[in-house]
Amino acid sequence: MAEDCCSFQLISGEGVLNMEGLENFSTNLSQRGVSYAVVAIMGPQGSGKSTLLNKLFQTDFRMMDADDGRNQTTQGIWIAKGIGIEPFTIAIDVEGSDSSERGQDGVTFEKQSALFALAIADIVIINMWCHDIGREHAANRPLLKAVFEAMLRLFRARKTTLLFVLRDQRKTPFERLEVSLRGDIKKIWAEIPKPEAYKGTPLGDFFKVEITALPSYEFEEDKFNDKVDRLRQRFFNSISPGGLAGDRKDVQPASGFALRAEQIWKTIKENKDLDLPAMEVMVATFRCDQIAKETLSGLNSDKAWMALRKDAQARPAPKFRERITSILENTLSQYDMEAIHFKESIRDDKRKELETEALQVLYPAYVAMLQHLRSRALQFFKTKLITEVKRATKAEFEASIDSIIKDTMDKFEKESRDVSISKEWDASAARQNLFSEIETMTVEVKTKINKTRTRENSPNPPCTSPSLPTYLQGDTANDLVGETFDNSPDCEITDDLEGEIADDLADDNFVFENDSLDWGDFILDLVLNIFG
Ligand SMILES: Nc1nc2c(ncn2[C@@H]2O[C@H](COP(=O)(O)OP(=O)(O)O)[C@@H](O)[C@H]2O)c(=O)[nH]1
Ligand SMILES: [Mg+2]
């Protein structure tokens, strides 16, 4: 893929960071969590750094043309993805450190880039000429000083791997080179002024030091390529225990890489203290916030959620609780997957906020469900009343109203609890409304019972049917429905009562949505209305 093979200039020679390029570069990286490695190379100008990176990572960093002489080619800091290597490996090519072309600016840039490389890389390759080893005034001394001082400024031991690659090994045996170099490293480390806290700290607390040598690229190309191939193998699984970067600490998630690189460079440029822990908090806060926002906007267009919302508006959605719980859990787990490697306290705080916001998004479906449950409870109440009318005597019926109310409220209570997935999702207002509605109905029912009683006592009872007085005398309502109102031609309902019944039927309290009354239901409703 095109974006995989192309290096680009991350920081120009003037110190300007290319954020847009970095963000584009990071798109393939951001899903990697902490499964990625950053490798930076430093060393003298024209010492074959870009050549080595290109061979190790199959990148395309610009190399100096041998015929042009050893003048500077790599301005600033370049970056590319290593090809064919797992984990995702970022290669960073840093401008030559002993540039005679940049003077004091070069020295400043060298220190800045050393600090940048150490702050961002898991492995820093220090490229040096074999013939410089042990030489008091060789270019590697100021470079090593810059690297060590930079590490002390970082305020933490990241246990970065320093991989020394010694170029153009000829006659001197590797063992001798290694001893000599380790001696140099130790000496330089001892000489560096250190803050009180780090006075007695051995170099090994900050770095893991590895050394290797390469034959001459110019005179022993095959051997050189062989050795580089073997070195490339060491970048496979470099972050696993025992790997090249296996000791690294405080690994920061890939999705914050671009922002972290930007902030680190900005701080270095401003010559401020590079307080990495503080920066990590900042990056974690920003990133977790961003992840939460992205997750929430994903929820709004989530297919399962859109289906449930539609469903809940239309009817009591089946498996509501199960579905809404899984939607919420999916949302949170999406966030978790992305935010997992950020600082726990920050990630958790943001997760709580996300949960609250997600619940707000989901809340309308709960409200719609409460509406359905309310209707269902009213329907239940009505059915119970009718059943009682059929079953009980009038006295029993009156006595059972309270328990019907209780059953109805209990049912609503239970069902509303079943659709709530948060303490904040409270049905008390809906419950109160339902209770008021039922009470109003109950009062009406009772009033109408009394009205009927009055009518019974009046000289002209409204229905001359012989069965009505039977009912009013306390026979079961069932008898009444079965024997008397069951299409009985005997019952002549007076005009007066007919009007009243019609009024009752038109009364909202007794006409429920979705009612489809057949004749039997009609009679029952009638009875209920006579009652009520
Ligand atoms: N003697 C020597 N020359 C090399 C080696 N690797 C690369 N070169 C050459 O050194 C020059 C500078 O290489 P380059 O990779 O651009 O160096 P950089 O400035 O350190 O990135 C080029 O002409 C390379 O062909 C090496 O191992 N030994
Ligand atoms: Mg170069």
UniProtKB/TrEMBL annotation:
The segments labelled Disordered in the record are 451-470
Coiled-coil spans are none
| One GO molecular-function entry | GTP binding
Which ranges carry the GB1/RHD3-type G domain?
33-248
Key word rRNA-binding present: no
Q: Name one GO cellular component term.
A: endoplasmic reticulum
Q: Which UniProt keywords apply?
A: Coiled coil, Endoplasmic reticulum, GTP-binding, Hydrolase, Membrane, Nucleotide-binding, Transmembrane, Transmembrane helix
Q: Entry's PROSITE patterns? A: G_GB1_RHD3
Q: Which domain of life is it from?
A: Eukaryota
Biological processes, Gene Ontology terms = endoplasmic reticulum membrane fusion
- Which family does this protein fall into? Belongs to the TRAFAC class dynamin-like GTPase superfamily. GB1/RHD3 GTPase family.
For this entry, the protein name equals: GB1/RHD3-type G domain-containing protein
Give the originating organism: Salix dunnii
